Amino acid sequence: MGRHRQGHISGWGAALFAPVAVPSALLLIFIQRLFGFKRSADLNPVDVARYLSDFLDGSGEEWDWDDFTSIPISDHTLDRIRQEADAVPLPLTTHGEAQLRALLARVRAL
Fold first, then answer.
1. Distance of alpha carbon 71 from alpha carbon 39, whole angstroms
2. How far is Cα 44 from Cα 59, in angstroms, rounded to an integer?
């Protein structure tokens, strides 16, 4: 019966791999920051209000609402509003429209 081999590196292999892996990971982080790769959007209250009002009046582009609801916002207050907007069921009902209008009023008050 053979010994079970798990998918990890240990011993000499780890000692030889670490000097390559650590600088590579640091270089990747540096490149991501250099070129502005982030996992959140830097939106301000005016931007969020525009997404909400464009969606409500139907003047937004085809993927605007999807972009807005799918990409977290760096500002936690605005991101909470984004999450609440994303929770409104589609297709939009009268109640859903009222919820989005209330969110629009909140963001305009900021």
1. 7
2. 20
**Cα dist from 91 to 12, 56, 62, whole Å:** 59, 12, 15
The residue whose two tokens read 């996992």 is 39
- Domain residue ranges of the chain, discontinuous segments joined by +: 45-109
Rounded Cα distance, 98 and 84, in Å: 12
Query: CA–CA separation, 70 vs 53, rounded Å?
Result: 17
Query: pLDDT tens string for the chain (110 positions)?
Result: 555 555 666 677 667 777 777 788 788 777 766 776 667 789 999 999 999 999 999 999 989 999 999 999 999 999 999 999 999 999 999 999 999 999 999 999 99
Distance in angstroms (rounded) separating the CA atoms of residues 49 and 35: 28
Q: What is the CA radius of gyration of the chain?
A: 23
